């Protein structure tokens, strides 16, 4: 009896959480440009690829996806490398000012992004970075959050392996790449997945730094599609396409998301 | 006792592995010699030693710190200076003292935006926590394929606001044929305007955020539930306590640190709400969904009043700072994000 209730609740909740995604996927095959009179408008009676064809004939949509890939993939790999190195430095190395610097990092992370965006806009205008990838790539090359995660992770790892390598004559760089990096694969994967999601999904920053349509990432591009009332099918096709990379990353790295969320909070 | 044992075991293992003296002693010797010799070494030699030991620190930390100063510290300070200037897009900035701060105090719309944001928090925080807890309880109750369901509930967390807002807007269309209105009609509820109604728009946006974020509160609660001692449940069950009673007297109080932590992070998140109001309502109708960040965006980037936007961003910062300080006071943790 209790089991039945639990499973009923579970399936109902799961269905309602999935419904928006089902609507998105099905709706993307629906040919419909005008006002919708049917509440179940998103069920395509005769599925068509016309929305997808429309998006790609337009040309600009493929460009948006490309832009998103550029401003996502470069920071992802850069963050994985630099956060791993910096996390290792803060976890294992002794150098003057270590605690103070880390304390400053932890204080600065409290500053909301929205505060930094106004001065950054003025700076980037000065640098000539508006409507270039630099504005979204350079500031994201490493992140305090990632350093924090790696540091947490490495602090729980004993020093023996590292010391053994050092006695064998390995220098710092070698120790890092041969010993530390292979050990840190799970946490580095967490840093990478977090970075992917936050860059791929970011709307606020590109909205401000990118004013030309051909420089929009897919989030800003989709937002501009939302403005065009009535193109439900096209909107959903665009959403589906921009969702695919997120979904694939999520499918393969789900564990790292949930572990990362727990690590960032509860330890 | 146990620590000593552990150390012994480590040393034994090290001796065993290397067939040499324990690493610990070697390291000690090395440290001793280097520290005792240090003052006598010529400067060049000292630099070389430091370089050998900490090269990686200097090669990577210094550029990272420069980057940090350019993209975090400087903008933070610059933004504060900006609040005392009249920053023009073209032409030299002019010092205007507290003009923008005074303007803020007298700006009814800014206070309206703060109030809207507080209202949004009220609509959003408790339901997000409650839904997250319910999801975690179900997942934790030993259902089959719990990993798959966890993934489903977490999916909106990793999906962009743009996608979810796009679908949300269609679901909550304020006409008879809107899907939510259609469902409500089965319960005899009249057609609602939703996003076009100034009393409902903020609620619909809060609903969107609840749907988007509940999956991550679920993860926190799930971790918390797993750390609850199973023996407590056993004992309560033997005493004949009902499941509901067990929940309210054991589970719920034991999750207290998590309630607190989740409350803080959802509060911080709710004060930064921007995407959904930008995408779905544009701050309307009748300013009912103009939140702090949306107003900041309008002032700064639609109105090009960057100095005034900087004032608003500092107001946001102070609010978040107070919330974070409360967290530190009560939790004594160094983390305050996500």
UniProtKB/TrEMBL annotation, chain A:
<keyword id="KW-0472">Membrane</keyword>
<feature type="transmembrane region" description="Helical">
    <location>
        <begin position="7"/>
        <end position="29"/>
    </location>
</feature>
<protein>
    <submittedName>
        <fullName>Multiple sugar transport system permease protein</fullName>
    </submittedName>
</protein>
<dbReference type="GO" id="GO:0005886">
    <property type="term" value="C:plasma membrane"/>
</dbReference>
<dbReference type="GO" id="GO:0055085">
    <property type="term" value="P:transmembrane transport"/>
</dbReference>
<dbReference type="Pfam" id="PF00528">
    <property type="entry name" value="BPD_transp_1"/>
</dbReference>
<dbReference type="InterPro" id="IPR000515">
    <property type="entry name" value="MetI-like"/>
</dbReference>
<dbReference type="InterPro" id="IPR035906">
    <property type="entry name" value="MetI-like_sf"/>
</dbReference>
<keyword id="KW-0762">Sugar transport</keyword>
<keyword id="KW-0813">Transport</keyword>
<feature type="domain" description="ABC transmembrane type-1">
    <location>
        <begin position="65"/>
        <end position="253"/>
    </location>
</feature>
<feature type="transmembrane region" description="Helical">
    <location>
        <begin position="134"/>
        <end position="154"/>
    </location>
</feature>
<feature type="transmembrane region" description="Helical">
    <location>
        <begin position="100"/>
        <end position="122"/>
    </location>
</feature>
<feature type="transmembrane region" description="Helical">
    <location>
        <begin position="64"/>
        <end position="88"/>
    </location>
</feature>
<keyword id="KW-0812">Transmembrane</keyword>
<keyword id="KW-1003">Cell membrane</keyword>
<feature type="transmembrane region" description="Helical">
    <location>
        <begin position="175"/>
        <end position="197"/>
    </location>
</feature>
<comment type="similarity">
    <text>Belongs to the binding-protein-dependent transport system permease family.</text>
</comment>
<feature type="transmembrane region" description="Helical">
    <location>
        <begin position="232"/>
        <end position="253"/>
    </location>
</feature>
<keyword id="KW-1133">Transmembrane helix</keyword>
Automatic annotation (TrEMBL), chain B:
<keyword id="KW-1003">Cell membrane</keyword>
<dbReference type="InterPro" id="IPR035906">
    <property type="entry name" value="MetI-like_sf"/>
</dbReference>
<protein>
    <submittedName>
        <fullName>Multiple sugar transport system permease protein/sn-glycerol 3-phosphate transport system permease protein</fullName>
    </submittedName>
</protein>
<keyword id="KW-0472">Membrane</keyword>
<keyword id="KW-0813">Transport</keyword>
<keyword id="KW-0812">Transmembrane</keyword>
<comment type="similarity">
    <text>Belongs to the binding-protein-dependent transport system permease family.</text>
</comment>
<feature type="transmembrane region" description="Helical">
    <location>
        <begin position="113"/>
        <end position="139"/>
    </location>
</feature>
<feature type="region of interest" description="Disordered">
    <location>
        <begin position="1"/>
        <end position="39"/>
    </location>
</feature>
<feature type="transmembrane region" description="Helical">
    <location>
        <begin position="306"/>
        <end position="326"/>
    </location>
</feature>
<dbReference type="InterPro" id="IPR000515">
    <property type="entry name" value="MetI-like"/>
</dbReference>
<feature type="transmembrane region" description="Helical">
    <location>
        <begin position="202"/>
        <end position="223"/>
    </location>
</feature>
<dbReference type="GO" id="GO:0005886">
    <property type="term" value="C:plasma membrane"/>
</dbReference>
<keyword id="KW-1133">Transmembrane helix</keyword>
<feature type="compositionally biased region" description="Basic and acidic residues">
    <location>
        <begin position="8"/>
        <end position="28"/>
    </location>
</feature>
<keyword id="KW-0762">Sugar transport</keyword>
<feature type="domain" description="ABC transmembrane type-1">
    <location>
        <begin position="114"/>
        <end position="327"/>
    </location>
</feature>
<feature type="transmembrane region" description="Helical">
    <location>
        <begin position="151"/>
        <end position="172"/>
    </location>
</feature>
<dbReference type="GO" id="GO:0055085">
    <property type="term" value="P:transmembrane transport"/>
</dbReference>
<dbReference type="InterPro" id="IPR051393">
    <property type="entry name" value="ABC_transporter_permease"/>
</dbReference>
<feature type="transmembrane region" description="Helical">
    <location>
        <begin position="55"/>
        <end position="78"/>
    </location>
</feature>
<dbReference type="Pfam" id="PF00528">
    <property type="entry name" value="BPD_transp_1"/>
</dbReference>
């Amino acid at each position: 009896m209790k089991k039945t209730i639990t499973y009923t609740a579970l399936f109902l909740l799961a269905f309602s959480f999935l419904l928006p995604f089902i609507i998105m996927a099905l709706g993307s095959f629906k040919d419909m440009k005008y006002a919708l009179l049917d509440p179940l408008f998103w069920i395509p009676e005769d599925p068509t690829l016309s929305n997808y064809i429309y998006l790609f004939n337009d040309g600009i949509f493929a460009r948006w996806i490309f832009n998103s890939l550029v401003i996502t993939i470069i920071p992802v790999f850069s963050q994985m490398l630099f956060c791993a190195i910096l996390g290792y430095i803060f976890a294992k190395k002794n150098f003057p000012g270590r605690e103070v610097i880390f304390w400053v990092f932890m204080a600065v992370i409290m500053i909301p992004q929205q505060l930094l965006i106004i001065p950054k806009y003025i700076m980037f205008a000065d640098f000539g970075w508006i409507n270039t990838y630099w504005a979204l790539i350079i500031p994201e090359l490493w992140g305090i959050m990632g350093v924090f995660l790696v540091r947490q992770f490495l602090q729980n790892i004993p020093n023996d392996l590292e010391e053994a390598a050092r006695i064998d004559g390995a220098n710092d760089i070698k120790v890092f790449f041969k010993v530390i990096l292979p050990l840190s694969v799970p946490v580095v994967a967490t840093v990478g997945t977090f970075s992917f999601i936050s860059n791929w999904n970011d709307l606020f920053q590109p909205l401000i730094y990118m004013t030309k349509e051909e420089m929009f990432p897919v989030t800003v591009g989709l937002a501009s599609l939302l403005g065009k009332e009535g193109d439900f099918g096209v909107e959903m096709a665009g959403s589906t396409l921009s969702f695919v990379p997120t979904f694939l990353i999520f499918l393969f790295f789900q564990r790292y998301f949930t572990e990362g969320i727990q690590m960032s909070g509860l330890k | 006792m146990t620590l000593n044992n552990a150390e012994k075991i480590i040393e034994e293992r090290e001796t065993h592995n290397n067939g040499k003296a324990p690493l610990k002693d070697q390291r000690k010797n090395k440290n001793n010699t280097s520290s005792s010799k240090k003052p006598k070494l010529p400067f060049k030699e000292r630099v070389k030693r430091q370089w050998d030991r900490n090269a990686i620190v200097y090669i990577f930390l210094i550029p990272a710190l420069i980057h940090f100063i350019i993209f975090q510290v400087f903008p933070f300070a610059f933004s504060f200076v900006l609040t005392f200037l009249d920053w023009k897009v073209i032409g030299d900035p002019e010092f205007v003292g507290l003009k923008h701060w005074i303007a803020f105090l007298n700006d009814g719309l800014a206070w309206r935006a703060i109030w809207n944001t507080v209202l949004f928090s009220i609509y959003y925080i408790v339901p997000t926590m409650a839904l997250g807890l319910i999801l975690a309880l179900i997942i934790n109750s030993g259902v089959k394929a719990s990993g798959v369901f966890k993934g489903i509930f977490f999916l909106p967390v990793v999906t962009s606001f743009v996608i979810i807002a796009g679908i949300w807007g269609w679901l909550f269309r304020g006409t008879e044929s809107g899907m939510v209105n259609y469902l409500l009609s089965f319960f005899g509820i009249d057609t609602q305007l939703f996003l076009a109604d100034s009393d409902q728009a903020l609620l619909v946006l809060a609903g969107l955020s609840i749907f988007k974020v509940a999956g991550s509160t679920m993860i926190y609660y799930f971790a918390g539930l797993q750390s609850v001692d199973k023996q407590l449940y056993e004992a309560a069950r033997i005493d004949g306590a009902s499941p509901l009673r067990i929940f309210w007297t054991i589970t719920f109080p034991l999750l207290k640190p998590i309630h607190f932590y989740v409350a803080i992070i959802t509060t911080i998140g709710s004060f930064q709400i921007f995407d959904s109001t930008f995408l779905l309502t544009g701050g309307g109708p009748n300013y009912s969904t103009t939140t702090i960040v949306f107003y900041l965006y309008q002032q700064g980037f639609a109105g090009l009043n960057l100095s005034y936007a900087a004032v608003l961003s500092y107001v946001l910062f102070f609010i978040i700072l107070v919330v974070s300080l409360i967290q530190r006071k009560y939790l004594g943790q160094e983390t305050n994000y996500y």
